[in-house]
Structure formats: C-alpha cells, structure tokens
Amino acid sequence: MNVQEVNKSNFPKVDDFKESKSSNLNDLYISAGDRCYVVGAQNGMFPDFGHHVKDEMGGVWAHPIKLLDGYWLHIREQTGDAQGFWLEEANAFHNYPFYNEHEYLFPEQEIKITRQQFCPDGLEGVVITYLLTNESDKDRMFDLSFLGRTDLSPVWYSEQIGIEDGKDDGKLDEFKGVFIGNDSINPWFVVFGADRPYQYGKVDRSLFGPEKTEGQGISGLLTYENIEIRQGETTEVTFFVAGSNKSSESALQTFSTLKTQNKQLFKAKKQRYNELLQKSNVRIPDKHLEKVFNWNKFNLDWLSMEVPDIGRGLVAGHPEYPWWFGCDNAYALLGNLPLGNLELAKQTLTLIHQVSELENGNGRIIHEVQTFGAVSNKGNTQETPHFIKCVWDTFLWTGDLEFLQSVFPGVKKGIDWLLNDMDPDGDLLPEGYGIIEIEGLNVELIDSAVYTYEALRVGSLMAELFKEEDLSHYYKKLSEQLGEIINTQLWMEEEQLYADAMATPEMVLGRIDVYIKRARDGQAEKAAIELENMKEKMSNLDPNVQQPWLFKNWVINTPMEIGLAPREKAIPALERMGTDEFTGEWGTYLSGMNQTHMMTISTGVQAVAESRYDRMDEALRYINLIASTFNKRLPGSISEMSPDYGCFVQAWTSYGLVWPLMSYIFGIQPKAYWKEVTIRPRLPQHWNKIEAENVQIGTGMQTNECSLSISRNEKEDLYEISLKEKGWKLFVDLPLEQSQRVFVDEQEVAIDVLNPLTFENAEKHVIRVLK
C-alpha cells in the first residue's frame, strides 16, 4: 500500500459480510438500531426468555419500553388449503451487518419465503419485509395475515422507581390502515401496519399465533387479501412497527416515516456501515482475525443506544444488559476509540458522569443505570478509578479539552472519595467490591488498588494541564507511593503472582466457608481443597494483621495490564497465567482455582497485559482465543462467556480484540490535544505485512487521520506512515538495534535505540531499516 494515496477500492464493503446458520436455530439474534431493536430466535420465533425482566427480554424494544412480544405471519393460498399455515421454524438464518433474514422453504407448496428485518437509524421502529417466491409453473393468489402481540412494559428495575405496568389495550384505525396499541395507565404506544391497506382486522387479548407469550399484552391481526405472485417471480410485502413512550401522535409519525422512507432509510444505514468499515481499515496476515475485527465494528454499533432524556452511549450487552455500565465501558470504550467512534466515547462517559453526579454527587461512579434513569448499584470501588483512567485515554485520542474540563471536577471528587470514604485505615488501598463481584469479597482488592494508582497518575496529568500544580504534585506523590505498595505488599514472591486481596485473617475467615461450599456446588473440588488449605493457614495467623491472599481470580493481571509491574515481576507472572492453571481452551479462566468459566474480558485483559511487555506472540495467542469463539452462537458475533453463552454480543469484547492490535501491534498512540502521535509498532513473529488506513485521531480542531503500512523480509523492514493533516508532531519508536542502518525518505540517518525518530510538522514518511 502506498499510504500517500488511499485506494477506495481496497476498502471492504458491507455487501461482502454475511454469516449464516442452518442448525441450532433456537439461538438468539438481534436486529439493532440506536433507538429500537428486535431480539428473537434465529428460527424466526419469539420465545419468552429473560432474567432481568422475567420472560420479557426478547421481542421489539424501543427503550425505555418494550413494544411487542413478537410478530408472526400466516399465509393461505386462495385455491389451496383453506386453513393455510403460520411461518414457524425457519430453515436457515442469515446475519448481515445491519439486518438479518430467516429463510423458509416449502418444497411441497412450491413456495419460498424470506423474512428480513432492520431498524433504521434514529427511529423507534422496525421494518419487516417478506419476500415470497413462487417456485411453481403457474400464477398464484395468497392471503397474508400479520399478527403482532403487544407488551408495552418498562425496562428492568422500573418498579423500584414507581413505574407500574398496566394492561394493554388496542384498536384498529381503518383510515390509516394500522393497529394501535396502548398501555392502559402510561403514555406508551405501538403502531403497526403494512405498505398496503388491510382488508380485515381483529383485536383480541386471547388471540395468539404459533406461540403464546406471557405478559399483559393484546394482539392485533391484520389480513391482506389477493397478494398475487406470478410464476417464478418474487413479491415483496413490507410491514412497519413504530412506538413511543410519549404519545400516539409520535408513534404514528414514526410509522409514517418508516412507511414512506424505508428504502431511503435502508440505503442510508448501508452507507453509514460502509463508512464504519472505511475507518481503521486493517489488513493483516490472519484473515479470520481480520474478519472478526471488522464484525466487531458492527457489534459495537449494535450496542450504541440513544434514549431521549437520558443520553447516548454504549450499552453493555444483548440480550440481558441493554443499558449503561461504569465498569464495562471503562474497558469497552478503549476498544472503541481506535475504530473512530470518538464522539460515542465522549457521549458515553458524559452520560455515566452526569448520572453519577445526580445519584451520588461525591465522585463515585455508578455501576449501572437503566434506560428510565434508575441506578440499581451506586458503584463498586474499582469503577471510579477505572472511569478516571478511561477519561484520560479518551482525552488522548480525542484531544477534546472541553470534555476533559467538564469531567475533571468529578475526577477530583472521585479521588477524594477513594482516599477518604473507601480507605478508612489510610493505607492507600481502597476497600469495597471490585470487578469480581464475589459476595463478601469487599476488602482491599488488587483491581481497585491498581486502578486507583492509575487514577492518581492520570489525575496528576489532568491537574497539571489545568494549572493546579499543587494538586498535580500531590496526586503524583500518592501514585508513586501506591505503586510501591502494590509492587511490594501485594506481590507474593513465593507464588510469582500478585495477590487478589489484602485483608486480615479474621475478615477472610468470616467468608471462606461460603466460597468452599460454592466451589463444591460447582464441582470444583480442587478449588475447595485450596480454600480449605487457606482456611487452615489463616487459623494459625494473628487474626487482626493484614495479609495478602491469593484467590487466583483473573484480576491479578491488572498490574501488568497497566504496565505497573516491573518486568522482573511481570514476566514470571504472565508466564504462569499462560499455563493451563489459568488459561483454558477458550481463554483465561475467571478463577484459576475453579477453572470453569472464561470471559472475553478476562482473556482480553491478559492480551493487553502481554502487549504491555512487547510479548506480541503471547498477546496474539489471547486475541485469537477470543476470535476463535466467533460464530459459536450468533453468526457475526462473539459471546460474553467463552465459548458460547451469556450475552450473545458484549461491548467489552472489543477491549481484547482492538486495543492490543491497534495500540500495541500497530502501535498507534496519540496525544491529540498536543497534535502529537507516537507510532510504536511491535509485530508478532510471523506477521510480515500489516496495513491500517484511515485511523481517526482527534475531534474538532484536533482532527487527523493516520495510515500505516509495515512490511518485513530478510533484508529490510519498511515502514510507510502518513498523517492526513499537516502541523502534527510524529514520533516513530521502532525496535532498532545499534548496528542497523536506517533511511528516512531515502536519506540515511543516525539512530538512537533509546529514543524514537522525531518528525516536526509530519505528513508522509517512508522509513527503511536494513538488517
């Protein structure tokens, strides 16, 4: 690739992406928009399921409310079977980046039907199209009946803030050709109809199609007669579902927009997805990983949600966590930044910050907020410093000083909360729950300590930027002290690992029997024995003297994840974490004791930790473990729990896929506010050619794009680097040896292996390293 001229024909296109299944179609899928989405089974049905809202997490949602339990189509040939049949079990499911299809084959009836659905951008509605293909040798006439089952009901945790769900009512509007459903005690509405008038309609609470769903809904059935399908041809019939939690007028207006503009809306969404692909367009030797990388762009878009009166941001996962989290986004947004979604990162952090201020007001960052604005957990200790770290990383990528200024008062309050409210013994190790929400394990935890160190470090940089010199020095001093504590008191030399927790034996003894029972209940006998040994050891210690304790949870990787661990500690710890004690077939165990469950986030943190120490082959191992679970349940996606359960799409998966690849393998590390970018590439051993185009850096006046190509052979390494805008400073930190000859733009230059090459007012450069 010549980075001086970007060839648009090299970009992948949305039309190139399709993932399909023809078995295990009881698995779930999503057709997502930023205001509305559909979740159902890949076989086309809408089974009741759900934990947070029992049996109600599927169907059509326009947060903060659910609209429908589902929709079904009945087909009857006028000259054939008088009863006709419902479309039930699809033969195949096809997932595309922004829409999906269920394929139904009826060879005896000589007809094929494809159901397609997509949710347009910015609208609370879904477009459902049926493509009916006549495979016989004669023209035929059909009647179609579309049934929608309402379930106008609120998101999880709404009852706790006084929102009550009423029974639904419904009516037909013959003039508009639609069914209108409403909640009897709330201004919640749903409207559905087709691209043509119906001839017959029915409303009945006891009316169901091929599935009977739970809830307080009501059904509307609209029948469309005399649908002609000529021999060998395909007829298209389109339905529209629209909703509102404000008024019937709003729902009807959305319905009208869907009906009159659905073709344009489809085209516009396709264009936007093509633009997503063009940003951070990478080409790497591993084509499977390259495909997964691109699908991850789509996955993150499925999780971008806007709710009026609350805000816009990245939600955690579908189908069980379609709302906003502090912890999840502290990971997920870092995977989001190198993909060019810089505004979304700022929007998400702003939403979380504003909700936290309203809920807590003391700098503490909330754990989760649902889409009516209710906070169910005011925030675990780890989330506040983790949020602060993410704010700084977002600032480095966006260069948005106004964004940083808006959050900095909360940063200062958050650090005060950590150092005072959450550290009663004053040892700089905050107490409380961390990422691992294990009941009773709310002591001084490694992840809270590590992220507090990082919050103090970046807080010092923020204070320096805003001319608060005394505060900057104070934060810096505390960060250095805390870093030393972590690397001494929480380092277990005999284990060559960091401890999970610092606690007195008395504190742990009060909880350990619960953990032993839980291990045995989970058939983790080895873990139970380890815990019993730990219990015996505790009984011989002073019950009131703090000790480091190793529970072998994956968070013991966090000192390496942020680069705090010195290399002499990091390497043996990473080596042990890479053994089958901590790493299974699909990734890093949540617990090295239990050795049962794995998550993309535990594996992702391991990948980032390896990257921090330039162990790129090892980092790639973990990246590929995540990528190996692609398509296990939902075609085009990766499950939260490895390999194939939990949420079928999860935002923080991007952290382990994108962040190590873009920030450490490609090595793109911007400081957009200062109009600087460092390129520090470190390639895995067998990767000899990689390319990245259109990597977005900065917003507003700090906007730029970076493109990078690296190729290696026996004689030389070639680096081609381009910045679209002039006036930026470029640092190029290559893995050089003193004996190598380096040519920049054909001119040989002296090198300093300890310092990067520096280019003022950089635009385009070619660097050749002779071996």
Automatic annotation (TrEMBL):
Alpha-L-rhamnosidase six-hairpin glycosidase domain mapped to chain residues: 384-530
Transmembrane segments: none
InterPro entries noted in UniProt: 6-hairpin_glycosidase_sf, 6hp_glycosidase-like_sf, Bac_rhamnosid6H
SUPFAM superfamilies: Six-hairpin glycosidases
Pfam family for this entry, one: Bac_rhamnosid6H
Listed name of the protein: Alpha-L-rhamnosidase six-hairpin glycosidase domain-containing protein
Species of origin: Neobacillus ginsengisoli
